[in-house]
Design brief:
heterodimer, A: mainly beta, 4-stranded antiparallel β-sheet, B: 116 residues, mainly beta, 7-stranded mixed β-sheet, 11 strands, 0% helix, 55% strand
């Protein structure tokens, strides 16, 4: 299985902060990577697909980059509604695998 | 907008069978892969398997020997059956639609606890 190592596991943030979350794959997954947002008790939501493409309706303060084995999710100017857990997912090879998640907390 | 709703017993005894259903509403069930994904406490998401409306399935090798997925397009339901469960199968179970290589619709999840 492809191991997805995500960091940090948690982050204390303030409104307006720039937030960077990284995801490292244990092997080259080209651009077959998605990012999701998950709020407690709610359905997870796809934010970014194919590394850098914004899902319809997702604010432009979210962006993604990377290729091969190293990927980042950036939130510029964090908003209160962005407090959630974020996780990456690779779909290069079955079984699909996910990062452990990054939980954002307000300072 | 498509909505997914997981249902099933919240408590299963060790060694017994876990059965869950995902009901699709607000959209077509056809021509998609429907997936089961779970999250144990303090851990990341784990993809369990998927089924296409043609009946084609792919399972995670970690659970493949214990897992059966089925689909009823007339009822717009996807089912999961996992035999011989243990405490390690305790998790929130989600169903999700795979569209254009991403899970674009998810249910809210259902907590399954394996305990005597």
């Amino acid at each position: 299985d492809i191991l997805m190592t995500q960091s940090p596991s948690s982050l204390s943030v303030s409104v307006g902060d720039r937030v960077i979350i990284t995801c490292q794959a244990s092997q080259d997954i080209s651009n077959y990577l998605n990012w999701y947002q998950h709020k407690p008790g709610k359905a997870p939501k796809v934010l970014i697909y194919d590394v850098s493409n914004l899902e319809a309706g997702v604010p432009s303060r979210f962006s993604g980059s990377g290729s091969g084995t190293h990927f980042t999710l950036t939130i510029t100017s964090l908003q209160p509604e962005d407090i959630a857990t974020y996780f990456c997912e690779q779909y290069d090879t079955l079984p699909f695998t996910f990062g452990q998640g990054t939980r954002l907390e307000i300072k | 907008q498509v909505q997914l709703q997981e249902s099933g017993p919240g408590l299963v005894k060790p060694s017994e069978t876990l059965s869950l259903t995902c009901t699709v509403s607000g959209g077509s069930i056809s021509s998609f892969y429907w997936n089961w994904i779970r999250q144990s406490a303090g851990k990341g998401m784990e993809w369990i398997g998927r089924i296409h409306t043609t009946g084609n399935t792919n399972y995670n090798p970690s659970v493949e020997s214990r897992l059966t997925m089925s689909i009823d397009t007339s009822k717009k339901q996807i089912s999961l059956k996992m035999i011989s469960v243990t405490a390690a199968d305790t998790a929130v179970y989600y169903c999700a639609r795979l569209h254009a290589y991403r899970f674009d619709s998810w249910g809210h999840g259902t907590l399954v606890t394996v305990s005597a």
